[in-house]
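Project standup — Tuesday

K.O.: blocked on the structure for the chain from last sprint. Re-posting the sequence here as requested.
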Amino acid sequence: MNIYLVVLLILAIVIFANLAMFAAVRGSRGIKFDWLNTTKDGFSQPFKKEDDQLNELRKRVDDLSKPDDEQIT
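H.V.: unblocked you, prediction finished:
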């Protein structure tokens, strides 16, 4: 009796997971569903955000290290 219950539960989980994935894909056509491209960008340039922050900091340090007569206000 217990083996039938386990098989039934596994079957129900598989069917529910497939229906949930189908609903997610079908429902996302009208919505911008761009997680694949963002994930790809994240893997291709993992330190882009940190590089941008460091470049901004480098520019600020360069501006501060200029003599006062060269700074543009």
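K.O.: great, moving the ticket to review. The first helix runs from residue 2 to 27. The two ends are 82 Å apart (CA to CA).
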